[in-house]
Amino acid sequence: MNDQRNLILAMVLSVGVLLAYDMLWIQPQQKAAQERARAVQTEQQAAAPQAPLAPPKITRTEALSAAPRVKLDAPEIDGSISLKGARLDDLSLKNYRVEQTPSSAEVTLLNPQAVDGGYFAVLGWTETGAAAGNLPSADTLWTQTSQGDLTPQNPLTLQYNSPDGLVFNRTISVDDHFMFAVTDTVTNNSGAARVLFPYGLIRRTGIPPGAGKNAIVFEGLLGVFNDKFEDRKYQELAKGDKNLKVSSTGGWMGVSDHYWLTALIPGGAEKFDAEITVRNIDGKQIFEANYMANGRTIAPGATTTEQSKIYAGAKRVALLNDYKKQFNIPSFEMAVDWGMFWFFTKPLFYALAYFEKLVSNFGIAILMLTVVVKAIFFPLVNQSYVAMSKMRKLQPKIEELRKKYGKDPQKLQQETMGLYGKEKVNPLAGCLPMLIPVPVFYALYKTLTVTIEMRHAPFFGWIKDLSAKDPTTICNLFGLLPFDPTQWPLIGSFLAIGVLPLLYGVTMWILQSLSPPPPDPIQRQVIGLMPI
After folding, report:
1. Cβ-Cβ contacts under 8 Å for 408 (sequence gap 6 or more)
2. What is the DSSP string of 104-165?
3. What distance, in Å, lies between the first and last C-alpha atoms of the chain?
């Protein structure tokens, strides 16, 4: 009892030392560093020659009004298509809100290039030689030849006539979800054969806020090339040593957030050269996924056609699978970050989705799936308990051997192994079965973290969003005090203990009290501290 009391006292004192260290050393050091940085910045600004003022930041509204646009309105998305450059650079998700409240703003996925966090997709043609300057570019103003807005029932048609006799026609259609189909035709009225190369690119300015904070969630650029999945995190690309260049027959590429995806899908199974890279343009990091297909030779008076697709929306697993089958998009469901244990993560997700469909509550579905997983692994756990029970019965004999051969370690080991063999006991049999389920429970945690189906899904009581942190902790009296201890550096994660972990600790203590304690006093103390 004295040893256990001393151990608990040591833990309490350790937490107190951490608190004092954070308040008296870490926080003052951070403030001092900030003050030094501000002082150095002020000195540098005063000593530096006065350069021309940088252009003022442009708002999203100003950027959208800088060029004529065609409104986009579909059941799950809205926004607009810029006639300048024919870009998809204004898109929001109707059914997903920034916050859980219905009055919250829609999640904005794509933004014009001119604003902070510019993020857009564009398709086009390129050509070698001087004639390339006559092809449509980012500054080209297309003419709308259709009437009305872009809707699933009303495709958008655009046209551009180059000065040297090429006629470009583009048809953009959108379905009821997140898929755009783009058909480009080029008619050569120039009087000479031309070779044009179709291309597509997605560009994003800077690393989005929050990317990389959750190590278990992938955010960055990705794609499938020659049936091989590739991904690069923003932070990896930013270092400049993870760029990818590849030639592929069929596939796709894009930019992935926690829950959202923008992807280019070249037409058919044609061969193309793809690139995932980061560029420094005007002092900004531009993350880019692009492709260029084989050249098309267009004889005078002839026409060529290119069909491709753009996906811009939520990473719903069922929808990605439907598109994969419908358009033969290889491994499109891999846009969801299933992780290294994907062979566990995928089946767990499908089981979870099935239970959610039955009970219409993700929290209950998680409980049901946990029970099923526990039941599957019960034989292993039971075997572990049986092995530990045998070891417990052998403890008196092992203690006798320690007393008898304590001064001869080699003899003690021989006699102990002999005892194990005689009693048919394997000392590892109690541990190994407990380790086997670990990858499965990690995969379950991965499933709950990365899939959008649980985003803003309520449970009961104060838990309004199963994908968010528990807002109640023991430090803020379970939500009664207006602060969040998880924001504190160093010790915040240790103090963010909510109601459910405490209940879990109590149930662990109750279950332990129903089991006979281990005979070894040190092991008994360690197990007694496990609920804490």
Report:
1. none
2. SPEEEEEB-TTSTT-EEEEEEEE-SSGGGGGS--TT-B-EE-S-S-BBTTB-EEEEEE-TTS
3. 17
* Amino acid type, 380: L
User: What does the pLDDT look like over 315-371, one tens digit per residue?
Assistant: 999 999 999 999 999 999 999 999 888 888 999 999 999 998 999 888 899 899 989
User: Residue 273 pairs with which residues in a beta bridge?
Assistant: 247, 292
> CB 477: neighbour CB atoms within 10 A?
9
Q: Look at 501 and 131; give whichever has higher pLDDT.
A: 501
Q: Record the pTM.
A: 0.78
Distance CA 516, CA 521 (A): 13
497 token code pair? 């203990």
**Distance in angstroms (rounded) separating the CA atoms of residues 481 and 283:** 44
* Residue 83 CB coordination number (10 Å): 19
2 has a pLDDT exceeding 50: no
Taking each helix axis as running N to C, give the angle between helix 342-359 and helix 362-376, from 0 to 180 degrees, rounded to the nearest 10: 130
Q: Cα–Cα distances in Å, from 51 out to 41, 45, 54, 282, 414? A: 16, 10, 8, 16, 81
Helix or strand or coil: residue 285?
A: strand
Residues 287-301 as b/e (b if ≥16 CB within 10 A, e otherwise) read bbbbbbbeebebeee
Please report, for the chain, how many H helices and E strands are present, in that order. 14, 19
Q: Which of 441, 434, 421, 439 is nearest to 388 (CA)?
A: 434
Looking at every residue in the chain, the average pLDDT score rounds to: 82
Quote the pLDDT of residue 368: 92
Both structure tokens of 333: 């469901």
Q: Quick check: 184 pLDDT over 80?
A: yes
Q: CA–CA separation, 227 vs 324, rounded Å?
A: 13
Dihedral angle over CA of 504, 509, 510, 515, nearest 10: 130
